[in-house]
Structure formats: C-alpha cells, structure tokens
Write a structure and sequence with these properties.
Helix content is about 30%, strand content about 25%. The chain has 13 helices and 18 strands. Helix 5 crosses helix 6, helix 5 crosses helix 7 and helix 7 runs parallel beside helix 10.
Length: about 350
C-alpha cells in the first residue's frame, strides 16, 4: 500500500465502546483502534458503557466520556503511525435513539476550538444536560402512552412514523426530558442524535440528523418527509412548535451527500487535510444495512447487545410489531427491522 494512498476514516460510537477504523480505497483495513468505556474511561462509574438509575428505570451515558473517547482514539491512531492528511472523508455510526442536548454556549464553543486543548477540556460545559439517554432506557412509559394516543392509537402512530411508541425513541425521551428538567430544556439550543453529535464534533458545527436515523424518534412523517406537527406539539408541550423545530434542525433528504469540510481544529491539531469531507453519520442499524449492501428484499441478522433482523425493501408496510425507517442512502427504499434486547 502506497504511503500516500487515500484513506477513509469511520467511527462507531456504540453502547460499550468507540471504534475508529481507517480503510483504503479497496476497503482493506489500514489502521484501527478501540476505546472501551468500562476499561479505558477515567472519572466515571461505568458498567457496560452506561450509568443506571434503577428507581426510575433510567439508563444513560455521560457525554464527556464520549469526548474523552474521541480524544483517545485519535491519539492512538496517530501513535500507530497514521498520516491523517491522507484521509479524504470521515463518516460514522452511533447507537440509535439517544439524544444530546447542546447549550447555547456549546453551539458557539464547538466553532472556536483551541488546537492546544482536548475536546474534553473544552466542551465539558457545552451541554445543557450532561447525559444522553441510552437505548436500554425504560423510563418513558407514560410518555409512550401519550404518543400512542396522540394520533388515535399505536397503529396510526406506526403508519405515520414507522413505529409505535417505544421507551428508547427520541420523541418520548424529549417529552420526558422537558417534563423532568424544564430549566435544562429551556436552555437547550440544539438537540442531536448520537450519530449527528459525532458528526458535529468533526464538522465544527451542529450537523443535521440523518434521513434514516431521524425515523427512530416517533416524530418524523416518513411518507411526507417532514416532522408531524401534532407529535411535535406533544413533545414541546405547546401548539407553537417553532422552538422545538429549531432545536431539531432541518433534515437533508440526500443521505449520500456531504455535510462539508472538516473543522479547522482537527487540521491544526492532528494534521488532517482542510479538504477532508464529512459525510452523513447514521444510526448503528442503518449503518449495518450499508456495511453489507443488501439488495431489495435481502435480509440479515445482527447479534450484539440487541438481537436485530434487518431487511432492505421498496415496500412501506408499517405495523406496531415492527420498525420501518428510510434507507440511509437510497431514496425509495426502506429499512425493515425487528429488534429485541438480548438476555445478557
């Protein structure tokens, strides 16, 4: 392999680790490293990548721990000999449904990073709430009931958004966050999914959510390609949904496009090329579809922290028993999914 050949860098922010992998044009792995949250994180009482509040059935992760992981993975890649100037594009995946709440200060901080300091040192105050709900969280039953009834019943909700209400879905989580932490919600400037949070770090500004990942919120009207006003009003607690729409941001329809060029922070600190582009980051399940590019009606099974059945399909036939989402890159295709927590 030529020492000047292009590289393509991907990140996977999962429940238990952050992985960084650099591949060549022919998809050969050139460099890779892992930050295991239980083994490597310092300053957090982490177990299996999360913190828990059993009394309220809450499962969540400290966002600063993820910043620590990004700092460490980049340093380890550099220590292993990678020349970051060869990296032409960065993309990645994040655990689905989790939400990150940026403060007004944080929206500015991410654009003014100092190359002499780590992300952890500079962005620890960038969030109106320091934790991100994990997909294993089960604290939102009351909010799920409200979502299922918002359109009449769970079948109508599934028809519109691709899924009935689920504890982990971001819409019910935002509703509970607003009810339990009204001050922090009011101080929130932007809301990211885990995937768009990770993209935002590398972009140096708040990145939009991905067209597939947004379907895991119980807020997105899949057939109309927009947020549903009734569901936004429920989450916002007001018929005036403008503020929540600003927090969520616009959703680009082209999942195969580009968000722009990498933040100058990474150019100055690690030696990335200023022309390195940031491609859309998506959820872990949509990214699995992309990892093995399925033809329509092909299916696969993923065995991990959850057991997941995935299929690419041109047919949109939602049902409360399953999940439907937009395909992450191909307009007119959908992702069909069954997902269960495993017994571990």
């Amino acid at each position: 392999m030529s020492k000047s050949a292009p590289l393509y860098l991907g990140f996977d922010l999962s429940t238990q680790q952050l992985k960084g992998v650099a591949v060549t044009q022919d998809l050969r792995v050139a460099y890779n490293t892992v930050f295991d949250f239980d083994a490597d994180a310092t300053g957090f009482d982490i177990k299996k990548g999360v913190l828990t509040n059993e009394a309220e059935r809450e499962v969540f992760a400290p966002i600063v721990m993820w910043l620590q992981a990004i700092d460490t993975v980049l340093q380890r890649l550099q220590d292993s000999g990678i020349d970051f100037s060869r990296v032409k594009c960065i993309s990645g995946a994040g655990q689905q449904h989790g939400s990150v709440y940026w403060s007004h200060q944080g929206v500015g901080l991410i654009q003014r990073l100092d190359k002499g300091k780590t992300l952890e040192e500079q962005l620890d105050k960038a969030f109106s709430y320091p934790f991100s709900p994990n997909w294993q969280d089960a604290s939102t039953q009351a909010q799920c009931d409200a979502f299922d009834q918002a359109l009449g019943n769970e079948k109508e909700l599934a028809l519109l958004t691709g899924s009935k209400a689920h504890h982990r879905f971001t819409g019910p989580q935002i509703l509970r966050f607003r009810e339990k932490h009204p001050h922090e919600y009011a101080e929130t400037a932007r809301i990211s999914l885990v995937s768009s949070f990770l993209a935002s770090i590398f972009l140096g500004k708040i990145a939009p959510m991905d067209i597939s990942d947004v379907c895991g919120m119980n807020l997105w009207d899949i057939r109309q390609g927009r947020y549903d006003e009734r569901l936004l009003a429920l989450a916002a607690g007001s018929l005036n949904t403008a503020d929540l729409q600003v927090k969520l941001g616009d959703i680009p329809k082209d999942g195969g496009g580009s968000f722009g060029e990498i933040s100058s922070y990474f150019v100055q600190r690690y030696g990335f090329s200023p022309s390195c582009t940031i491609a859309p980051f998506t959820g872990d399940n949509p990214s699995t579809i992309l990892a093995l590019p399925l033809r329509p009606l092909d299916a696969m099974i993923s065995l991990g922290t959850s057991t997941t059945f995935l299929m690419s399909t041109p047919y949109y036939k939602p049902d409360p028993a399953v999940h439907f989402m937009n395909h992450p890159t191909t307009e007119g295709l959908y992702m069909f999914m069954l997902c269960y927590k495993n017994g571990e």
